[in-house]
Automatic annotation (TrEMBL):
The species this protein was found in: Helicobacter apodemus
Domain Peptidase M16 C-terminal: from-to ranges: 169-345
Source organism superkingdom: Bacteria
Matches recorded under PANTHER family: METALLOPROTEASE, NON-PEPTIDASE HOMOLOG YMXG
GO molecular function: metal ion binding
Residue ranges of domain Peptidase M16 N-terminal in the record: 42-163
Name of this chain's protein: Insulinase family protein
């Protein structure tokens, strides 16, 4: 049974539900996603959404994290809260026979989160420790500096997970206000399935979500990548150079373009061995262990990004080759053999991405969220199978903007 788009009305609000019944195993899976509750709504308090989700993983105020976790463990249930770029999700799963116990615990978490000063200080300390560890993570440092350049003057110029200064500033009232603003009925989208019927899902959701405010739906505006080329080099105590690079990718219609984007990305740098980046930088010249570049087409952001590590002596040459590979890629496109290899891999690997119920439901959700048909992935595969070489190369040639590269390097003198 494929995923279906249904809905449930709670307090006069229609909440979409992406549902797939699967009775092969006595398991259930429910995820409640709140659009706008992610880092995109931090509004200058970087780390606010992440800290909120961290506290929500600390149980309820009544039980505390230890007793709340024990109740989950007794029923072999999993309940996790995660903050992402645009959303915050509550994911509940377990055995079918324990579903009602799971819904009761989810309801108690939504109604009585452990919003206390003690808990806030605990998750702040964890967040600050994580930031301290990242100071010696040169991949993170190079990537962070790249994002600050290509996303300048946007929400992504600064780390959504926070800085030392922003995390220290966040108060318990900030957390409570964020929760009350963004965890609401009009922001909610549900994905659910497994060996659980739809009536049970809707009845449980009415009980679980009935206590939430109606709220307001968040409108998320697209973020553009800077077309101006940039360069930043940070000198650190390192034995090799970490090179990250990015560029704009202008996608006007995901539904019409995604098949071409996937093939182009696979050939340019997304396929590992056999990709242009890997062949030119590692195989032919031995300058790096790996070299990667992806073309990312999204509803909110579309951009090109890649990275490699090389010896400090080869830093300049590696950067130069990256430019050459992209320039030739745009000018000459791909070969018939590369197209065939891309088709074989993309068509052959897609079933592996849809083996589990959660994978299928999340794929359907991602399509719904982007305004696409739930079965869009299947349609894309058909388009990929029918792609002609001249169509792919014409598409690549029309995207000169991916050569407007910005480089972020962490290296040593």
């Amino acid at each position: 049974m494929a995923a279906e788009l249904k809905n449930v009305e709670i307090k006069g609000v229609d909440i979409p539900i992406i549902y797939e019944q699967n009775i092969q195993l006595p398991l259930f899976y429910v995820q409640i996603i709140f659009k706008g509750a992610g880092g995109i709504s931090n509004k200058g308090l970087y780390g606010l959404s992440d800290l909120t989700s961290s506290i929500l993983n600390e149980g309820t105020k009544e039980l505390g994290v230890t007793k709340f976790s024990q109740k989950l463990e007794e029923k072999a249930l999993s309940l996790e809260v995660e903050s992402r770029f645009e959303t915050m999700s509550f994911t509940l799963s377990g055995m079918k026979k324990e579903s009602q116990a799971g819904f009761r615990l989810l309801k108690s978490l939504l109604q009585d989160p452990n919003f206390t000063q003690v808990t806030l200080e605990k998750v702040k300390e964890t967040a600050l420790t994580s930031l301290l560890e990242k100071e010696s993570d040169f991949d993170y440092q190079a990537n962070r500096a790249l994002n600050a350049m290509i996303f300048k003057d946007s929400l992504l110029e600064y780390p959504l997970s926070g800085t030392k200064e922003s995390i220290q500033k966040i108060t318990l009232k900030n957390i409570q206000d964020f929760y009350q603003t963004f965890i609401n009925l009009k922001s909610a989208i549900v994905i659910a399935g497994g060996d659980i019927d739809f009536l049970t899902i809707t009845q449980s959701l009415n009980d679980v979500l009935g206590g939430l405010p109606e709220g307001k739906e968040v409108q998320i505006k697209p973020i553009k990548v800077h077309r101006d080329e940039g360069y930043k080099r940070q000198v650190k105590d390192t034995k090799q150079a970490y090179i990250y690079f990015g560029a704009p990718l202008e996608v006007k219609d995901i539904q019409k373009e995604i098949a071409r984007v996937k093939v182009a990305s696979f050939v340019l740098g997304g396929s590992g061995f056999g990709s242009r980046m890997m062949e030119e930088i590692r195989v032919k010249r031995g300058l790096a262990y790996s070299a990667v570049m992806h073309l990312n087409a999204g509803q909110t952001i579309s951009y090109a990004q890649g990275y490699l590590q090389t010896s400090i002596d080869n830093e300049k040459e590696a950067k130069s080759i990256v430019r050459e590979v992209i320039k030739e890629f745009i000018q000459k496109g791909i070969t018939q053999q590369e197209l065939q290899e891309a088709k074989q891999y993309l068509l052959g690997s897609e079933p592996l991405r849809n083996e589990t119920l959660s994978q299928r439901l999340n794929a359907a959700f991602n399509n719904y969220y982007r305004g696409l048909p739930l079965d869009f992935n299947h349609k894309v595969l058909q388009e990929i199978a029918n792609l002609k070489l001249e169509d792919v190369n014409a598409y690549i040639k029309n995207h000169q903007e991916i050569s407007a590269l910005t480089f972020s390097v962490v290296s040593a003198d």
